[in-house]
Amino acid sequence: MVTAAHAPAAPPPQPDSTDAEHLQLTTLRGWRRFVHTTPHVPDLLDHGRLTTLTAGQRLAYDEARLTHHAQLVVIATATIRRVTLEGRRLTYLNRRAETGRCGLIVSGPARTGKTTAIIQMAKTLEVIHRQRHPHNGGDIPVVYITAPPAATGRMIAVEFARFLGIPLLRKPNITEVMEAVCGVCLDARTSLIVVDFTDRE
């Protein structure tokens, strides 16, 4: 986790819904889209109204329902609530810590909701930050990356840079990358860094 004190004044960029890259949570624009988007619940038509729809209207209606279900609305389970609570506590403890900051490890078997839990925790913490600092649109309170379990330090550093939009025009060493990443995180008041190790075996 990184605690920062300064924030840039630039407002957050608006994602382009036609760009698939902006749907990825591992990019800043994709993450912001995820945080600020509220799933739209389509109207549920009864059988009588369905029979009055034209073929085109029925297709649009079915597509809207499929889109809604594809968004996988998350239920706040006991695990998600606990992970979110622990994440909030640790970020509070880390605010004034000069060294020895606390971290949180979420582990368990595959397909048990670990990624969902940490994403919901991170989203909650970002929403809280936005509510407390509504005029600091350029803040980046959360950095979220994914990496394989065997990822090297340099690979993880490059993923941080990619999320933050830091251009890497040549092959920099890990020290240069991390200096750039830490500089941006300090300026952007980053308080939570999430590394999701994606072991799909």
TrEMBL record:
Gene Ontology terms, MF aspect: ATP hydrolysis activity
Domain ORC1/DEAH AAA+ ATPase, chain residue ranges per copy: 104-196
Domain of life: Bacteria
Alphabetical list of InterPro entries matching this protein: AAA_22, P-loop_NTPase
Region feature Disordered, mapped onto this chain: 1-20
Name this protein carries in UniProt: AAA domain-containing protein
Organism name: Micromonospora inyonensis
Highest classification ranks of the organism: Bacteria, Bacillati, Actinomycetota, Actinomycetes, Micromonosporales
